Amino acid sequence: MVKRRKNNNRKNRSRKGFCKNRAKARKISASTAYETCTEQLSPFGGLLALIKFMDLVNFHKIFDSAYHQPSRNPKQGHYLMMVGILMLLFIGFNRIWHFVYVRIDAMLCGFFSVTRLPAASTFWRYVDSLGINQAKSLLKVMRILRERVWQLCGFRFCRIRINIDTTVKTVYGNQQGARKGHNPKHRGKEGLRPLLAFIEETREYLIGKLRPGTTVDGAETAAFIADIENHLPGCVQEVLLRADGEFLSWQSVQAAIQAGFDFIIANKACTPFFDSDRWYRPFKRKALQYNSCIYQPGGWGQPCRFVAMRILKEQKQPSNQPQQAVLFEDDKYTYRIFCTSLAGPAHQVIAQYDKRADVENLVGEAKREGLDMIPSAKFKNNYAFFQIVMLAYNIWRYMKMIANQSVSGDRSEAAAADGSVLKGIMSNTVRIARLKLLFIAAKVVKDGNRDKVKYSIHDARTPAMFYLLKFLDKARSGPKPWHQDGIWPARFAI
User: What is the pTM of this model?
Assistant: First the structure.
């Protein structure tokens, strides 16, 4: 007799109130009938988790305490206008006029307690009233929010790595601030050149600024580095900065030294002198050679350490034609040179820099989430919208952190079954996370004196959504870390 295996997952589902079997297949054809229904439906059922998260961190209070209100005072209030734009970006719509598709969504309207959201033109007029002051105040909102999420997730990073990078936003109109500069995809086109910094440990956006399309100069980079400390959570004591050759100058190096940061910056302009006898090979199977030296470029205030890696260039096959003689030995090698404050072997320092490559993925993801959009011809409006986009981007990061935290500490069988969709969500892109946590069909109904959101028992993501919602409800009802003195070294208490 063949023994049948027990279907534990099926039993767990049955215990939780979910169907034992999937929904029966229905025949849908061109002749299938159709009609309307009276229920309020929404394709964004996952917004309930976002709403609970915003209540958990008390986002309304954070916003009111840090946000610099513009001169325009909308009838709906600043909070509704800003959060409405954030939710539009959270859903995946990165243009203001996309509000026409979600004005009457049951989840969105229910959150703001309105029958329909304001027209897209109302939100556009509000964006048109924003400027540099609002953009800077949104950075304050982000730093308070960051600290609270770290407290909730138990992050106590003493040392973090910050990657600095720029990107190009090509413009095709008469936008203010657009300049011709380095534009690899659209050569000769005018554009804007945002400057961004990301935290490697959490992959979140730290600070940034919108700027003209010209190359970043040393004074601007120095001011940017000096401002980093003002946005770090209280637990951070040490910082390692990593940047490409565009940011190497004495001003930026001096700013990092004065801030107490370690740094690794790629070199493009300096020509340090390396002892030819000190090249070494740490890996027998690789033809890579490494070296280091102390060198003070012209105009620098003090000498710094430079590390280098070189590899032989590919040799061309000999031919009957006369060959160009090699004048210098260096012509035979390809070099990578870096300026750094780190000690240790050169190959280990360069390996630390190579981990910076992930920042390109983060910048690309931010551009897909709305960073590449330029809604206005005015630079001040675009500057503010840039920070709104990055705040929405960070909220997605925090939602993934909370979702991962909900399953990481629970090793029960129910958590393994119900929270399986949430496992590995930290490594997912925002697009994938949106499919897991947002695009879940929901029905908003009246049950007695209470409003309820109902999810389909046939959706495989429903158990994970329930698991996350229960986790958020438990956190909302429990003590908050930022209310407990001495538990966490907070810097941005409100």
Answer: 0.90
